[in-house]
Amino acid sequence: MPSRSASTPKLSPGYAANMEGVAAVERALAIVEAIERAEQPLTLTGIAEATGLYKSAVLRMMVTLERRGLVLRQQDQRYVLGPLAFRLGRAYERSNRVEEQLAPLMQALVERGTESPSFHVRQDDETRLCLLRFDSHHSTLDRVRAGDLLPLKRGAAGKVLLRFGTGDAAAFGGELAEYSFGERDPLCGAVAGPVFGPGGQLLGALSLSGPLDRFTESAVKKMVKPLLEACETATRNLGGVWPATRRAR
């Protein structure tokens, strides 16, 4: 019988339990996320259906969430995010300075005639969150908005988040940009690059996206250079170090 490796210590029951998290907190956050994703205020029944929780459990959670200001019950008994959610969002912006640094760079890309710039961060193992979005001056646009949850494993921005999010030095070999031609949406094309923070941490992916028929070879070539220049400027402004320049493929 093989013996346990000396380099793999056995976890104590208490430590293992702590790593599982707290079920009540998980359920409460699931409720908040369901309200955040909804396109309109939700009833208790709607929240229960979205989370898979019993209405009685949702109601108990709501008492605390309302008291702390994370959700708000309207007069029609439907629920929306409360003022604490807004304050948390503003605190995130203050601590990360992401919008402050990226918004002018993204607007400058629009003025240069590129496709629509978006900034994406990893949400979980399956999704990414569009944190910022500016529409291009073109008459037709792709359907991406700030706050949208998109698949992590499809699309140019997702490729960047997966490739550079591990911190593996091998990820920096070759070109820094990633491309997508109809992967997430068969009618959409995109090109994306990484934005790094202090210590080489990947902060997110800056992408340019739009209708696929405008992503010709010549158009993509024109967009890659200003996109990566914006990624480099954002990286330096946010305290990161930009990798050595790579040739676009």
UniProtKB/TrEMBL annotation:
Residues 84-240 form the IclR-ED domain. Gene3D superfamilies: 3.30.450.40, Winged helix-like DNA-binding domain superfamily/Winged helix DNA-binding domain. Pfam families: HTH_IclR (PF09339). SUPFAM superfamilies: GAF domain-like (SSF55781), Winged helix' DNA-binding domain (SSF46785). The keyword Mitochondrion does not apply. Coiled coil: none annotated. It comes from the Bacteria. The lineage of its organism: Bacteria, Pseudomonadati, Pseudomonadota, Betaproteobacteria, Burkholderiales. InterPro entries: GAF-like_dom_sf, HTH_MetabolicPath_Reg, Tscrpt_reg_IclR_C, Tscrpt_reg_IclR_N, WH-like_DNA-bd_sf, WH_DNA-bd_sf. This is Helix-turn-helix domain-containing protein. Residues 22-83 form the HTH iclR-type domain. Keywords: DNA-binding, Transcription, Transcription regulation. It comes from Piscinibacter gummiphilus.
